[in-house]
Specification:
By secondary structure, the chain is mainly alpha-helical. It has one domain: Up-down Bundle (Growth Hormone, Chain: A), CATH 1.20.1250.20. Helix content is 82%, strand content 0%. The longest helix is centred in the last third of the chain and has 30 residues.
Length: 407
């Protein structure tokens, strides 16, 4: 990428209004919660006398409640306003994360993670629509900033979890509670107040109705299949590696950094070269190949594959989100809620089943094989609808392709 292109991208990011930066910062911390528990899964299992299947339910409860709550986020935002919805979500996260640090059993921790997921649902979908609505330069740059926040949160979360978790498995939860409280105060002070006249009427069923659009449904299901594979890597790799919190945290820090970099810098260029759908198909097939590499019983090879998979995940997160937000004519908060419902449903299912899949197949790497198959199905689904989607895309420009023109 040329110096001029770097300068253009830097200027576009620098010129975003304060509301966008505050929301993006809060999003970084919220996304930290996804990978926060990754380095301390073994510590939690030991400290609370829990089995691997019980510990992976920390992902399942978090994502499962988040999935269901996604259906009401757009209605909540329309009724109470985006700022109030964001503040409700952040408040729930602060209370839940602090309580997680006080949990006395794995069952309590699983339940509190569900409350955490509820707060995240109110925040995540609303934050995307806030960033898109307030950002300068249109939807494309906003999508990139949102996905950069996702990647940064995914990289910092495991690192924070590792260093605080090396002291106690309770440490990462208390640390996140403090950070989220800071984000809550910033959003309360700096986000623009809600204007009642700007709120359209949105029903709880509208996100599901939005999925009646063939293109949005296809992209959402394809993303769900990929996200299932994504969370297979996230939730199951620590049990295959069997390393300490610091080592696993460093591995996933490298992985998350790759997610952030490629999502912002490479996804728009790949989309401009191949087209958004083709770029997504190629990337998800590349992810399938990496999952097949993870089947090999070699821990050094698994580490390399995990980190490299972050490069592909960065591409896919941006490509899927950009397509979902531009392929239908549904209002952005509604499209975001419907898309995120499907997206995180895949993650919840994977986090619930990975431990059982390893038991059913009788070897530790089996979940990676199943995840690879899901990626192939995702690619086939997207490729099958390529022609139909091209004709169905509304006048809003494809987000990743629009961003490529700036990069």
């Amino acid at each position: 990428m040329s110096t001029r292109n770097h300068s253009t991208l830097f200027s576009a990011v620098k010129e975003q209004p304060k509301q966008v930066w505050i929301t993006a910062f809060a999003a970084v911390i919220a996304f930290m919660g996804i990978g926060l528990v990754d380095p301390i899964l073994l510590s939690i299992a030991e400290g609370l006398d829990a089995s691997p299947s019980q510990v992976t339910l920390l992902f399942s409860s978090y994502l499962g409640i988040q999935v269901l709550a996604m259906l009401v986020t757009s209605a909540s935002s329309a009724r109470f306003g985006a700022k109030r919805t964001v503040l409700i979500g952040l408040t729930l996260i602060v209370l839940a994360t602090f309580a997680c640090g006080l949990a006395g059993s794995i069952e309590q921790l699983i339940g509190l993670r569900a409350v955490w997921g509820l707060g995240n649902a109110f925040f995540i979908a609303t934050a995307l629509s806030v960033i898109v609505g307030a950002a300068t330069g249109g939807q494309a740059g906003a999508i990139l900033l949102y996905e950069a926040a996702l990647g940064l949160g995914l990289s910092v979360g495991p690192l924070l979890g590792a260093f605080l978790g090396d002291i106690s498995w309770r440490g990462p939860f208390f640390g996140t509670a403090v950070l989220m409280l800071f984000a809550l105060v910033l959003c309360a002070v700096f986000l623009r107040s809600d204007a009642r006249e700007d709120r359209p009427r949105v029903r709880i069923t509208d996100p599901l109705r939005a999925l009646g659009h063939p293109g949005l449904l296809r992209v959402s299901v394809g993303s769900a299949l990929y996200t299932a594979a994504f969370f297979t890597v996230l939730a199951w790799s620590p049990f295959v590696l069997e390393w300490g919190a610091i080592a696993i945290g460093l591995v996933f820090f490298g992985w998350g950094a790759c997610v952030a970099v490629t999502g912002v810098l490479l996804a728009p260029r790949l989309s401009a070269r191949l087209g958004e759908t083709s770029a997504t198909v190629v990337s998800v097939l590349g992810y399938a190949v990496l999952l097949l590499v993870m089947i090999v019983p070699s821990k050094p090879l698994l580490v390399v594959a995990i980190v490299v998979s972050g490069l592909v995940s960065g591409l896919l997160n941006t490509l899927f989100t950009g397509t979902a937000m531009s392929i239908s004519s549904a209002p952005r908060p509604v499209a975001s809620a419907g898309y995120n419902f499907c997206r995180w449903l895949g993650g919840a299912a994977a986090a619930t089943l990975v431990g059982h899949i390893a038991e059913w197949f009788g070897f530790a790497q089996a979940p990676f094989l199943v995840a690879g198959v899901l990626c192939v199905l995702s690619a086939a689904l997207l490729a099958a609808g390529r022609g139909a989607d091209r004709g169905a895309v509304p006048k809003r420009a494809s987000s990743a392709e629009g961003a490529a023109e700036k990069v």
